[in-house]
Design goal:
- The structure is a single chain.
- By secondary structure, the chain is of the alpha/beta class.
- It contains seven helices and ten strands.
- Strands 6-7-8-3-9-10 form a six-stranded mixed sheet, sandwiched between helices. A four-stranded antiparallel sheet has the order 2-1-4-5, with helices on one face.
- Strand 7, helix 6 (about 170-185) and strand 8 form a beta-alpha-beta unit.
- Helix 3 (about 95-105) packs across helix 4, helix 4 crosses helix 5 (about 140-150) and helix 5 runs parallel beside helix 6 (about 170-185).
- The chain is globular.
- The structure holds adenosine-5'-triphosphate and magnesium ion.
- Adenosine-5'-triphosphate binds next to strand 2 and helix 1.
Amino acid sequence: MIETQGVAKRYPHGVTALRGVDIEVSKGEFVFVTGPSGAGKTTLLRLLLRQELPDEGHIRIGGWDVGALPRSRVPELRRILGVVFQDFKLIRRKSALENVAYVLNVAGLPPAEQRRRAYEALRGVGLQHRLSTLPDALSGGEQQRVAIARALVSEPEILLADEPTGNLDPDLSVEIMRLFREINARGTTVVVATHDRDMIRRMQRRAIVLERGRVVTGGRPS
Ligand SMILES: Nc1ncnc2c1ncn2[C@@H]1O[C@H](COP(=O)(O)OP(=O)(O)OP(=O)(O)O)[C@@H](O)[C@H]1O
Ligand SMILES: [Mg+2]
């Protein structure tokens, strides 16, 4: 499903964020990407999303050659990817339902169908009672669940999350991870970047460990 070979990414001023990165994630897997701050976790996710291009190596996702994908075709790649960020990135003047439905608006679905699917996605994360609430009136955990519903409403094959529990207290983090596990159980491939070792230990899933831009363990399924 996801494969990188010899991936390197350098930023200006001589920072090598990634080098020689070989990873493989099978369809239906749930994996963590971990390592200390600055190890390259976010950079790796940005490359998978084609927010950045690698300086060296190959990246393949579900048949796409991401490293060679022209900008014009990025929307086609994004259709199979759902993304969740640490800071939620919700639109403040839109309700929970509107934040989720908006994604489908861009995809050109009729409004009634958008609302129906957005409702289903919010129900899936236990927020059917918060449909018309604005983000500022939601708790951190609720905002993150809206963001997860938004990532899932278009039924992506892969869910990529960067520190999705970084702004949440431990109880809410456990709840979000339980949700990710359910999503994974329904067939979605899940990749979560986190530096939370306790969480990885509890979840007992493979961890791809990065240090200073290199994979130290867990690059491939065992
Ligand atoms: N846009 C950028 N320009 C220059 N250097 C960058 C840029 N983004 C990241 N870096 C550098 O690349 C390296 C890897 O950063 P990255 O954000 O991928 O780390 P991370 O593992 O996600 O860290 P954290 O746990 O703090 O989120 C760091 O040395 C960082 O300073
Ligand atoms: Mg990061």
